[in-house]
Structures are given as structure tokens and as C-alpha cells.
């Protein structure tokens, strides 16, 4: 049976794609951010997951305002990365796992999540930057797993509630665990933490709220479901709503997790950058 071994979170800022392309790991601006990843690499080296479920939010590449699915799941054999205009080098297509995708889609719809299935889905920085951060060298890294993108709408209101995001994750757990093949699965929750890219509050970052979310999500994610969507925008910034992806990831990990590693650094570009490694119960 498929086994979920843990969850990883990271911000997905496009500038990171350029910093990686230019190998700026020891640059004083970037070092405190990149220093958050080696403990995750060590854990991945040890456990070598077969599949990464990459929960991200599309920013207008795969979907646009004319058609905006609340929840979308990739069901392709590979996912193409296209130029979004950020100036980051385009990466080769990412191998998927269509068979597992369809199993998950079946399971989610049976559990009353009406998702959009995508047999073609170009993936943006929200998906690609985390793949590069967690698997150094990405495609050149023999350990880079097959990946399944799951995108939630954080772009056009109404966006999902934090409770719905957590519940999505719980249904996702059941939909993965019922897969008959013996594979190891890691869940990525990407985006956030606090940031606002435009309007009067452009540049807004809220360290206190980010710290609270990084603490609560470990043992008491239910408490975070009390935050309304308006409060989330107020406290995390308009784009800080990407924290929804972290809640989806957390729901898929089960009741008890061990936080093996945390890093928080501000600012990276315009964002409060948070990295976490949460291990599921019974994995060692
Ligand atoms: C930035 C952060 C994001 O989440 C994003 O999607 C684009 C840009 C930033 O901080 O620059
Ligand atoms: Fe983003």
C-alpha cells in the first residue's frame, strides 16, 4: 500500500529560481534562506520517496481568471514548465504518475471533493521552485521523484476556507493510502508565508502571524481553521492566502507528526519564507 512519510513546506518565490540558476547559495542575502534546506535533503536522502504530491497554487499560467478551478489535480504523464515572464530559466518537463493521479481523483470525488482533473497542466514557479529546492539539481538529481501537481485557487475570490483546505488534505490522505502499490509518498505544501505584492500594503510581512502558523500547524491545525478568509488576508497579506496549501498538506499527514526541522527568514524578495519538515507517525 502507498505510505505517506511526511510533509515539506517552502515558499516558492520566483527570485529563488534565479538565485539557484546563478548558484548564489553563499551570497549573504540568500545564505540564511538556503541554509534552511540541508536538513530536508538529509531526510530525503534517507527516505527517498517515490512520488511527491506537490500542492501549490497556480498564478495564471495553467488557469486564468476566465476559468478558475477551486481544486485541480494533474492527471498527466508529464508536466511542462512554461515561461511566465519572471525571467527564470525554463525547466524540462516533470515526470508524473498518471495511474496514481487517477486513483487520487477517483478517491477525492468519492469523498465529495468535486475537483478538476487536468490531463494537461503547465506548471509555474509555485511547482518548479520547490522541486528545485528539495531535490538539488532537479532533473539532474536521480532521486527526484515523480510528481503530481494539485493546485488550489488563491488568485480569484472566493478562495477556499482554511477548514476546507484541511479537510481536502484529510480526504487526500485516504485517497493515497488506498493505492495498492508499495510506494513512499511525500506531500509538499508550497507558497506563503505572509506577503502582499501589490496595492497599498505592498511589501507587507507579518512575522508574528507566520510564527504562530508555523507553531500551530504542527499539533493543532484545527485551531487555524477558525481564521476566516478575511482575517487571513488581513494578517498574512493578499498573497499570504497561499497558506491554504500548507493546510492541505497538513491534513494529509494524519493526527500526529514530528516537526524535525523549521527555518524562517525575512524578507526573501517580498515574502516571509518558511520551511518545515514534518514526519508522519511510524516513520523512522
Ligand atoms: C513573490 C512571492 C510569491 O509567492 C510569488 O508567487 C511571486 C513573487 C515575491 O516575494 O517576490
Ligand atoms: Fe506565490
TrEMBL record:
One term of GO molecular function: ferrous iron binding
Keywords: Dioxygenase, Oxidoreductase
Source taxon at top rank: Bacteria
Keyword Cell wall biogenesis/degradation: no
InterPro entries in the record: Xdiol_dOase_suB
Signal peptide: none
Ranges where the Extradiol ring-cleavage dioxygenase class III enzyme subunit B domain occurs: 8-272
E.C. numbers: 1.13.11.8
The protein, known as: Protocatechuate 4,5-dioxygenase beta chain
